[in-house]
Amino acid sequence: MTDQELADLTWNALTAAFPDSSCSLDTDRPERLAIRGILSAQCTDVRVNITSGILFDKYPEPAMLSSATESQIAEIIRPCGLYKAKAKSVKAFCTKLTCEWNGKIPNDVQMLMEVPGVGRKIANLIVGEIYRTPAIVVDTHCKRVMYRIGLTDRKEPEAVEKDLMKVFGRDKWITLGHMAVDLGRKYCTAGHPGCDICPLSSFCRRHIDG
Ligand code: SF4
């Protein structure tokens, strides 16, 4: 089977299994989604949604977060883990947003990555969800499931992203990332993948090759 045929089978199986796949972070306001993206590193989306709600109750506007100290932000976002680094990143993002970007989040991955702590994964999430700019979010689930399926033999997120971009059309990139998360949560879990009930088992290379 060619890589393209494998990608097509994967797409068809994922869209059938997860027809309503979407971002599981709350997406009520663009800047809040971006901040939730920053908080999401090594944390569950459920936890991020809860904790960010408390943060935005206290600091409803980006200008208020840019004026807050890192330790004030860190105190609230502690449950998300990595809270010192994330507080620095949230403050830096809000400062850029209010002072450099005139309140408008750039639709530009490279510009977003100038914010300390914002890497390609978060930048892709931001442009994809806010502007629907085609971008594949390669998180820990996406990386794992695509490797197992056989759509990449590399493990660095940027390399995985490039491999996926070759076999999936641009119109599929945003949804592909969401569906990979769904697959990783429901069937292709890190510890014990549920291959026996997985809708990709008839063609998944790991399952077939053992
Ligand atoms: S068949 Fe198994 S290894 Fe392959 S995607 Fe499904 S759960 Fe993961």
Can you tell me the CATH superfamily of the largest domain? Hypothetical protein, domain 2
Q: What order do the SSEs take from the amino end to the carboxyl end, as H and E?
A: HHHHHHHHHHHH
Shape: elongated
Strand content: under 5%
Helix content: 55-70%
Structure explained in plain terms:
The chain has helices at residues 3-17, 30-39, 45-58, 62-67, 70-77, 83-99, 109-112, 120-131, 140-149, 157-167, 173-186, 205-209. It has 210 residues and is mainly α. Helix 5 crosses helix 6 and helix 9 (140-149) packs across helix 11. It folds into 2 domains: 3-22 and 136-209, Orthogonal Bundle (Endonuclease Iii, domain 2); 30-131, Hypothetical protein, domain 2 (Endonuclease III, domain 1, Orthogonal Bundle), CATH 1.10.340. 60% of the residues lie in helices and 0% in strands. It is elongated, with a radius of gyration of 18 Å.
Brief sketch in words of this structure:
This protein has 210 residues and is mainly α.
Throw out a few tags for this protein.
0% strand, 210 residues, binds iron/sulfur cluster, 60% helix, Endonuclease III, domain 1
Question: Which helices and strands occur, and which strands form pairs?
Answer:
Blueprint: H1 3-17, H2 30-39, H3 45-58, H4 62-67, H5 70-77, H6 83-99, H7 109-112, H8 120-131, H9 140-149, H10 157-167, H11 173-186, H12 205-209
The structure holds iron/sulfur cluster.
Iron/sulfur cluster (SF4) binds next to helix 9 and helix 12.
